[in-house]
Design a protein that fits this description.
Elements (H helix, E strand, L loop, with lengths): L8 H10 L3 H14 L5 H16 L13 H55 L1 H11 L5 H13 L3 H14 L2
Helix pairs in contact: 1-2, 2-4, 3-4, 4-5, 4-6, 5-7, 6-7
């Protein structure tokens, strides 16, 4: 951008696009206001419209409330930009929590399936435990896993257990 001459409107466009901080936006907008004469109000309006689009590209941001004049739009944009890092932090924390809950659930389900295999092996032998584990596969449905636990506790024979788990997995309950 520094190789563009001062007073060049393309310099302002590039300056806005490359702005990373509220101070950067304020500096570019101040320079633009200095370049534009009062007769250039329609050009200033075009920059305001473009700034609205710039804000609207940010997730969770609304574009239309930036103000009418270039000065109003700049002040509002600077204020909003100052809030973006905190918003990004909150969104990142929320996303991390969602991912943590999902990961914890997957680990819990895996441990539950392993426990079911061990219980089945304890009641009917290792081969039956392995067969139950194979039938469950990557089942993550807690209702199916609970039904399998109930079958392990109540089945009177290996065959009854294997048939019951096969039915539970196939029919979903």
């Amino acid at each position: 951008m520094d190789d563009l001459p001062l007073g060049n409107l393309m310099r302002a466009v590039v300056g806005f696009e490359q702005s990373r901080t509220p101070a950067d936006v304020a500096r570019v907008a101040e320079a633009l206001r200095d370049w534009l004469s009062p007769e250039d109000s329609s050009l200033g309006g075009a920059f305001v419209a473009w700034m609205r689009q710039m804000v609207a590209r940010r997730p969770g941001q609304a574009g239309p409330a930036l103000g009418v004049t270039l000065e109003e739009a700049t002040m509002t944009l600077v204020e909003r930009m100052a809030q973006w890092p905190e918003q990004w932090r909150r969104e990142g924390v929320a996303e991390g929590r969602r991912e943590g809950v999902a990961e914890g659930r997957r680990e819990g389900v895996t441990q539950h399936r392993t426990l079911l295999r061990r219980f089945a092996a304890g009641r009917f032998g290792e081969a039956v435990g392995e067969r139950v584990e194979a039938l469950l596969g990557d089942t993550e449905d807690w209702d199916r896993l609970s039904a399998t636990a109930e079958l392990i506790a109540t089945a009177e024979s290996e065959g009854e257990l294997i048939d019951g788990v096969s039915t539970v997995v196939r029919q979903g309950g």
